[in-house]
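ESCALATION

Customer reports they have been waiting on this structure for their group meeting. Please prioritize. Original submission:
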Amino acid sequence: MNNVFINIWKFFKFVHGIISEKMLAGRKNEEVIEGNSGSDYLGIMDGNSFRNFSLVDLPGICGELECIVNNLKNSTNIEYLLYDYPGILEERLRDNIGEIEVLLKEIKSVNSNIQQLNQQHLLFSKEQISLKKTLKKLKDNEIREMETVVSLFDNAMFIQWENAKNSRKVEVLERFLSDVMSKQLALENLNILATRKLTNLKKYPKGKVTNTKFIESNSAPTLSPENPEVQKIPPAPPLPHWPLPNFTNCNLFFPTDDPNSF
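Update from on-call: job pushed to the front of the queue and completed.
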């Protein structure tokens, strides 16, 4: 665009020189043109070098001038470019800046969430390790307590359990479980018998037993005559001399197997 305006300015200068030359009297046109060619000829930029302007270039200059004049006459485009278009560009720029800010906030939020998730994952891993250690410790304590109870009340079974625990054979563990189940059945039976015995003792205490089927053969102590406690017991009083009735003369009914007796 700058080159166009430079060419236009030089073109007007060239036209002004031609008019001035024609107004000079007493000179030939060729001498005037040759005398002023060094200063009045228009220089046109051809690539990176300048060349002198000639009449052959005049139609091109006129076409460029016509385009410039037509653009200048279109005042709507001029007003749009001068007043409306900068506002539109500014609005677009603000919209783009707003979108970039929103995108930046989302990126920061995602980054913050990722950091929080990583921190929570790290804390969860530590808590999981701690819970596993605590659970293992509780299981070990529970096993130790059960083994302590078994060793206190049944040392023989505890020794068998130690041997079975250190073994990797299925047969050994099955045999041990069979012994445990047998002993458990025996203990359950003993529990039932002892419970019944205790119930009978509470229901029929010593000295008040009226039914002999609840008394064992060796439950009552035997007292010998030489026992001093027996000697302190006074003798029984004599029986009264009551007349005994004669049952031989009574008409009593006696059952008989004879069917003719009825």
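Sent to customer with the following note: Helices lie at 2-23, 29-40, 58-73, 75-153, 155-165, 170-203, 228-231.
Escalation resolved.
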